[in-house]
Amino acid sequence: MPSLLGAHVSSAGGTPQAPPRAHAIGATAMQLFTKQANRWAERACEGDECSAFAAALGETTVQATVSHDSYLINLASPDPELRARSLESFVAELTRCESLGIQYLVSHPGNYMDDRGSGIARNAEAIAEALERVPGRTVLALESTAGSGTALGATFEELAELLGRLPAEQQQRVGVCLDSCHVYSAGYDLVRDYDGVLARFDAVLGLDRLQVLHLNDSKTPFASRKDRHELIGEGSLGEAPFRRLMTDARLAHVPRVIETPKGDDATATDTRMLERLRGYEAAG
């Protein structure tokens, strides 16, 4: 069975345009936005769009579908107005995923702004409400963060606390998206202690919680607390951790998506990166 490997692809022109772009790079997994990520304006996915998306997907080898929610959403905000707006936007994200049959929704934990513990509580409460309002099969994958400012989710313990606050009946619908650039920037040394990082994740969260992998190199040094993606093998992580991530049997079932720079030709660059990763896997 081929690895579930792909890239974040553009949905410009509508969500049905994303699968052909994934197909063009030979992807077996893909990530997309279901709306403009930097705008509050919401939209519903109606019948014709959903049918067209499913038909387009059926013409590809994509087996795993992932959506990333809006960058504006902050479920941990202490500002009642922003948090309420974020909750409605998050509900709309989940609803679009269910309508399109998308398997995973990746979401950054919020920024607490005032008190970390209160922010975790607000975030968990909002997630629980959203999952209750939008029943279905889409799995929420909370993304590990680089730890800048007041962002939540830079430590495995914080992610575990956030997930642990959700009701028992929702636990099967939530997990983690591990981003290689983010965890390295947050102080988890994938370069010198890959086994230790994975062991720590397993001890704190459990590898069964790992739903999606974002494979990104980093433009910044270890523990920089900065989120700056680089091409695979060309940043501060280098090739070694990606060789491990592509050959670790424990992760074989996890969809792996790159969010690396696109350059002047997104199709050519993404194809080159995926071929590089498959080369690591073949050599492993």
Walk me through this protein's architecture.
With 284 residues, the chain is α/β, with parallel strands linked by helices. Helices cover 39% and strands 14% of the residues. It is built from nine helices and ten strands. It has helices spanning 18-24, 47-58, 80-100, 116-133, 156-164, 180-186, 194-204, 240-247, 266-283; strands at residues 5-8, 29-32, 64-68, 104-107, 139-143, 174-179, 210-215, 217-218, 229-230, 256-258. The protein has an eight-stranded parallel barrel, surrounded by four helices. Strand 5 (139-143), helix 5 and strand 6 (174-179) form a beta-alpha-beta unit. Helix 3 packs parallel to helix 4 (116-133), helix 4 (116-133) packs across helix 5 (156-164) and helix 8 packs across helix 9 (266-283). The longest helix has 21 residues, at 80-100. The chain is globular. The chain starts with a strand and ends with a helix. The mean pLDDT is 97.
Keywords:
284 residues; eight-stranded parallel barrel; two-stranded antiparallel sheet; globular
Low-confidence stretches: none
Helix content: 25-40%
Find the count of extended strands (DSSP E, 2+ residues).
Answer: 10
Strands of the biggest beta sheet: in what spatial order? 1-2-3-4-5-6-7-10
Overall pLDDT level: 97
Q: Number of helix segments?
A: 9
Cα Rg? 18 Å
Strand composition percent: 5-15%
> How far do the termini sit from each other?
16 Å
Shape: globular
Largest sheet: 8 strands, parallel, barrel
Give the SSE order as H and E letters: EHEHEHEHEHEHHEEEHEH
The chain-level structural class is alpha/beta
